[in-house]
Each structure stands twice: as C-alpha cells, then as structure tokens.
Amino acid sequence: MKRILLFIFFLSSGMSPVIIAQENPGAVSHQLNDTISQFLDDVIITGNRMQIPFSEYSRNITVVTKEDIDNLPVQSLAQVLNYVPSVDVRQRGAMGIQGDLSIRGSNFDETLVLVNGIKMSDPQTGHHLLNFPLNINNIHKVEVLKGPGARIFGQNAYAGAVNIITKVPEKRFIEVNGFSGIGQSDSQESDTTFYDYGINIGFSMPGETYGQYLSLSHNASNGYRYNTDYEMNNLFYQSKLTGLGGKFNFQFGYTDRKFGANGFYAGNDEYEEVKTSLVSLDYEKVAGDLFIKPRIYWRGNKDNYLFHRENPQWFNNVHLTNVFGGEVNLSYDSKWGVTGLGIETRYESIDGLEEEQHPEAQNQLLNDDSRYNLGVFLEHRFTFHKFNMTPGIYVNQHSDFGFKVFPGIDMGYQVNQLLKIYGNVGKTYRVPTFFDLYYASAATQTFGDPNLKPSEAWMYEVGLKASEKGILGETNFFIQNAENTIDWINDPENPDVKWQAVNFSNVNKWGIETSFSVDFQQRIGPEAILKKISASYVYINSDLQDSQFKSRYALSHLKHQFIFGIHHKIAKNIYNSLKFRYLSRPQFDDDSILEGNTNLDNYEVLDMRIYWEKANKMVYLEATNLTDSKYVEVGEVLMPGRWFRAGVKFRFEY
After folding, report:
1. Domain limits for position 290
2. Is the predicted pLDDT of residue 259 greater than 50, yes or no?
3. Distances (CA, A) of 293 to 207, 242, 373, 377, 461
4. Model confidence, pTM
5. What is the number of structural domains in the chain?
6. N or C: which end of the chain has fewer CB within 10 A?
C-alpha cells in the first residue's frame, strides 16, 4: 500500500520536467479564452472573512470549476461530488434526489454545506443536507474544505465543508440546457425500460449598477425500479446592486422534490415530498484596508413522509423546520497581516404539522422545539517570507449545550516554487439533530435520546503540495480523535429497542489521501489533444472502541477510494470525458457490530460523456454506470444500472 501511495505522489511531482520538455515554445499564448480552465493558483478561496489564493492555503482543498462541471458526465451536484477525493456521496436513488454526504469517514450529520456562505444544515436531519435550491448550471465553482471547520464556519463543519459559489454572469444571455435518458432495469421487481429527462432555462441580465440572474429547471423520471420515480423543480434567483458605497447581494432559491423512496428507510412503499427554500441578503463594503460584510438569511424545509404511498393512513409525518440567521464578518489588512473577525447568531425550530397529516394516519412527530446559537470568530494570518500561519478561535454559546471554545491553527512553508509543506490542527464539533434527540417509534423500535451531547473531535493533518502551471500534486495524512460521537446502536442485551441514539466514548480515524492532475491546455495550449488527466487514492481506517454494539453509521465509511479521469479531444470540436471510481467499505467478521450499512460489496463505476462544442453550443451523449455494475451505497437501495442520455446546451447572447 505504501509503495503505491509513494509511486502516485512522485509521479505527480515528477511529471513536471516531462511536460516542460513537450511544451512547444512556439505555441499560442497561454492567455486562454473563457472555455479554458483558469490556473488554480489564481483561484480565490471564498471564505466568510479571509479571501486567500488557492496556492497560499495551508489546508487540503479541492476546487471544482464551472468548466469542470460542464465537461463531466453528470446532471446533479451529488454526481459532481462523487469525483472529489475523500468525499463520499451515498445516494438513495438516481440524480441525487436524496443522498448522504460525508468527508473523510464522517457521517451525513458531520459535514456542512453552504450556498454562497449560507449554511444549509437542517436541524431535523442531515438527510436533507443535499436539498439544494439550484441546478448545476447555476454553479460558478465548488470549494471542498477537508478537515476541522469549526474555526472557520462554526457548528457542524465537523469533518469539512462544501461551499457552492454562484454569481451573476457578466454577459447578457438566455441559455437552455436539456437532456433525456433511457435505461434497462433488471431488478428483482421488474425488467422494464426506464427514462429520465430534464430542462434548465437561465436568464442573465447584468448591468453596471444592477445585475440579475434567474434559473428555472425541471427533472423527472419514471424510476429505474419499483417506486423510485421522482420529480424535481428548482427556482433560483440572484441579484447584485451597487450603492451606498458598496454592493448588495440577494439570492432566493426553492426546490420541490417528490419521490418514491423504495428502501430509503424502512420499507419498499415509502414516499416523500420535500420543499426547501433559501433567502439571503448581504452587503459588501471596502473602506481602505477594511472589508465588512453583514448578512441575514432564512432557510425553510417542509418534509412530508408516507410509510405506504398508496395507503397514507398507515403512517404519515409532516415536519416544518425554520432557520433564521444573521452574521457580520470583517477583515482588516495591516502590516502585521490580515485579521478576520466575525459574529453570528442562528435560530432553529421544528414543528410537527399534525393538521396537515392524513386524518387517520398513525404518526410519530418530533417534539416541537427551538434553539439558538451565538458565535464569535477571530483569526489572524501571519506571513513571514516563505512561511505563513493562521491561528484562530471560535467561541460558541448554544442554548441547549452551553459555552464551548474551538481553537485551531493552519501553517505552511513554501519550500520552493514547486513544493509546499503544510499542517493544521483544530477542535471541531456537531450538535445533535432533533431526530437524534426526540425520535421515538415503538413500531420500528427506534428511539432518540434527549440527553445527547454534541460530538467533538481534535483533528490533525500534515501534507505536501506540488504545484506548477497546469500541474497539481498533493498527499496528506490526517488523524481524527473524537469524543461523544453520536451514532445509532443496537444493544443485544436490550431486545425491545432496535436502534438507540447514543454518544460513543471514542471513535478514532486516520487516513491518507494522494492526488494529482495535469491540465495540458495550460501546459501546451488550447491545441492540446489530451486536455486533462487526474487520479486520486484515499485510505481511511477507523477504531470503534464500543464495538460490543451494532453501529448504524460509524463503521460504514469509505475504506478505499480510487478515482481516475481523462478528458481529451477526438476530432475537431469533439471531445470525450471519462470518469472511473472504485470504492470499498470496512468488512467485519464479528456479527455483533454489523448492520445493513456495513459489509457492503466493493464496486466500480465508469461514466463517460462524448460531446461536440462550438460557440456557446454543445451536443452530448453520456453514459452513467457504463459497466452496468450492481452496487449499493446505503442500506439495501440498489443503484441504477447502465443509463444513457442525450442532451443539448446552447446560449443566445444579446
């Protein structure tokens, strides 16, 4: 294993002289047009306080650009994140209609997702974390920060954070993106043809003082097996207004999802409707060396769950969650470095809507409850020639869990133009969801615990980056020492309870990640036949000390993850993008610690897109799971087999 990791890393570093030798000194300028990816060293990481260039960040961060997304064989953000090292998206069904997101072996409640810096965490359950109120065509870039995030983002950035960045385009246009797909189901329930389709229409109306962007999308499928049909509608609006010496930014998003939930939780006839809304307003102002950004936001989620789709009177739960938040973030640039300061407040509530349920239905509503959080951030970035250091602290007062302090520090040393050594350490946490605390069902023998404590962990990371124009190589080693880890367990000595929420005394994880990519267009120019190659390997090991119990989530993380991608030209204006991934999870011989989410089979998936592109137009054919692998990512939900799609994208500028 070690030999393989060393080989991959030195390959990424050692490619540099090979590529330089092949570069044509008489080639056209490297100042490429908008369809060519920008050099990642110049990409600014969009933090809430400090804006730091990618090359200067002393953390393990993956940036997925808009060009990357446009070329991938994907139709949802969940699919995009599947190709990010150390990220595990365990989908229930197709197209990311619902999925659980984790980073570095965490579970779905231990990762934070943000849209333009606005936290998308749902206090009911992390199963709603990927309910994005936007379409992938709206995304400008995605930043994936791995490791402890409390010092930077606050609660629930336990093992990392995903920040989705959108923006009002600079050109005026109308764009239309549409696709339709077909596949053959060979599941146990049926042997039928299934289909899906989707359309997105976007309107860009920029201006010097006032700019707007509006997007509407609709996706649907009849389902690749019994009761897996879905319908998803998204509305996203964004605007910017220059005034009062600064800039106002407003965004509104809404998603309405309806889907058959075969095997998602407890049965084959489940059905769910989820509606998520997001509204935010912020103001940016630069006054000399001071940058200040106050903002307010609201996120709402309504979840309507039926245990039996055709018989809603059996069991019907309807819950409404509301999150109201406000922040003030600022940074000050002085001769001593950059200082970041922020204060946030967040109010969360949940209501069981008994009046909206089927009148004869059994139900198990969560307790109506609310809680609030107040936090203060302080960090300072020191730079001494080749060395940089960013210590910081997050101080938190939670209405349910009291006063806590979360320190951390990032450090980096630029050895030379090619190599950088970095390390970081930080304390992080996540609070229990309302489901963890209050769910109680005698029918399923599942019970939360109102006395749960927040999960906390110290995390450590050291790494080495190799970076030269168009070439990125990185390897890092990380450790997680956790306390009070929240999980659901089955205690053989208590047969009346199938699942009980508990705090484990200690869960330790460690792992290694190595990756490299070469962008030949940046090395050679736009005439390069081979546009880009990339590969990554991740290994994660865990130690669950309370192993006398069956664990529902703590042991179901990735153990091995390998991802390979190649993007190349076939003929004039015709290209191919291919992605391969292999995943395996821990296997155990001791039945005392097993549950349906563990001992899942290893699997590999190959996706591909062939497309013609010219002057704001694209026509493509893509295949998902080209090898027709039979695999399960969570529980007993069999994922779709081979699936073909055809699509078009075109833009009218005016």
Report:
1. 2-264+274-653
2. yes
3. 22, 14, 20, 14, 30
4. 0.90
5. 1
6. C
